[in-house]
Amino acid sequence: MDEIQQYMREKAEQVEEKLGEYVKEAPGVPKSLKEAMTYSLMAGGKRLRPTLVLATAEALGGEEAKALPFACAVEMIHTYSLIHDDLPSMDNDDYRRGRLTNHKVYGEAMAILAGDALLTKAFGVMAEGALDAGLPGETALNLIREGAVRAGAEGMVGGQVKDIQGENGKLELEHLQDIHRSKTGDLITFSVRMGALVANATENQLITLTGYAERLGLAFQIQDDVLDVVGDREKLGKPVGSDEEKNKATYPALLGLAASRDWVRNLVEEAKELVRSEPGIRGARLLAIADYLVSRES
Amino acid sequence: MDEIQQYMREKAEQVEEKLGEYVKEAPGVPKSLKEAMTYSLMAGGKRLRPTLVLATAEALGGEEAKALPFACAVEMIHTYSLIHDDLPSMDNDDYRRGRLTNHKVYGEAMAILAGDALLTKAFGVMAEGALDAGLPGETALNLIREGAVRAGAEGMVGGQVKDIQGENGKLELEHLQDIHRSKTGDLITFSVRMGALVANATENQLITLTGYAERLGLAFQIQDDVLDVVGDREKLGKPVGSDEEKNKATYPALLGLAASRDWVRNLVEEAKELVRSEPGIRGARLLAIADYLVSRES
């Protein structure tokens, strides 16, 4: 395992430990609800979003302990979105990362409620994290407001609506990109911006890092589509070719495999160049994360 | 219509106008999602929670304009909870307030997402409202944190889990009260506390008003159960006796109708006495709202 994978593994473990505490600590929560929340929170995965929060804060010399609650908050939002997306009335998936989906284990009602609870908790964790970190009130409130926009109707939830409505229909490239910008890009961008804001980024640093995150988010999505065509079932934890089977619009389907891969490489180069160009960012980890995204197999 | 009903009608209209703006203004939201969100937000109802935010702020001499976003936020949370509660996998209700439920009109997927979007938006509206009102950062962040607790796994969502698990089973009185304290009480208490915090309540005033709200919330729930037995179908907008049909545990079923009604009256008297006893609260409206809750027919 090379250095960046080691780093990501460490950050994932830190985040998982803290996530476990958040759910375990909460008083008066029905046992079954705690179980359902924990099941999906602890389902593993790369923990890309929280790692980006932590790595960005670190790149600006911020304290990791102050960034950790925000890392957990974004993972809670991501996890809730997966639980709801998997529901029978949405993507109707029985498996995710090789395990039964939440509603297959706990039933639909509990899956919906576990998702609702995680989403709600995320905002509480952000507010608490801001208080504990002593963030300026205005910074913290703007961050929460931005989180609501990027995770909500204008962002991730809106993206899921567009995605559902686009399924089984022909999608133009621009439309596909618009879906992904909101469905997955917004939360990735929010992760990087949270890390930056917690570490007192300058306005210029924030703009540069936002550009990095936007390119990373798009590259990540295209690479996901590429892996769905060429990936290894074992490593992916889901059947290869499942997008094609669902007649989903994907980048390889629209552009071909070679062009999709070139695009990923270009986006990653641009993202890295942005980070390198900005003074005051110790960006080695951010560069390595970008490289990892191209080389990954799952 | 007497004065308090007139007042509640006016506040409801103010809240509805502002709610409409919040959804309409949001850029980049898919049209279908806006429609589904608006359908349930504009489904009428007493708007008890937002009215409590506004009336409490007013009782402490706070500015109504500063309280209005928080009033809208709590109504968004309430509305999302109704949409999700009505889903086929939960209460499976086709009608609410005499209109088709969200999922009957827009389908299950859209209903889930419209609920998710409203919940998310609520936190954005609180953060924005706090910034616009110039609330101290610490007050605002504590308020958001409390909202997440009261609306989340520890509060409303947890209450819905307990409620689902209690259906078709015998429930003791204490357990029933615990369900309602979290399922409906927490959000009513949060409404009053938000109004108080926005208006710079003293610590004593906050404690007193919390006591008022807790009694009001319980009285409201018992009265709901009473109306389900003795109410008028037209006024209720749902079939009378629907709780009994679902074999739901209710206060009249556990205590009898007369004792349930007495309890409501006692709780309302206690709530009113608290408000009267606290210096610096111009509580006429809060008293009238409590009285209205006993006399209402829907």
UniProtKB/TrEMBL annotation, chains A, B:
Keywords assigned by UniProt, alphabetized: Isoprene biosynthesis, Magnesium, Metal-binding, Transferase
Entry's transmembrane regions: none
Assigned EC number: 2.5.1.-
Gene3D superfamilies, per the entry: Farnesyl Diphosphate Synthase
UniProt superkingdom: Bacteria
SUPFAM superfamilies, A to Z: Terpenoid synthases
GO MF annotations in UniProt: transferase activity
Cofactor: Mg(2+)
NCBIfam families: FPPsyn
Similarity comment: Belongs to the FPP/GGPP synthase family.
Protein name, UniProt field: Polyprenyl synthetase family protein
Organism: Salinithrix halophila
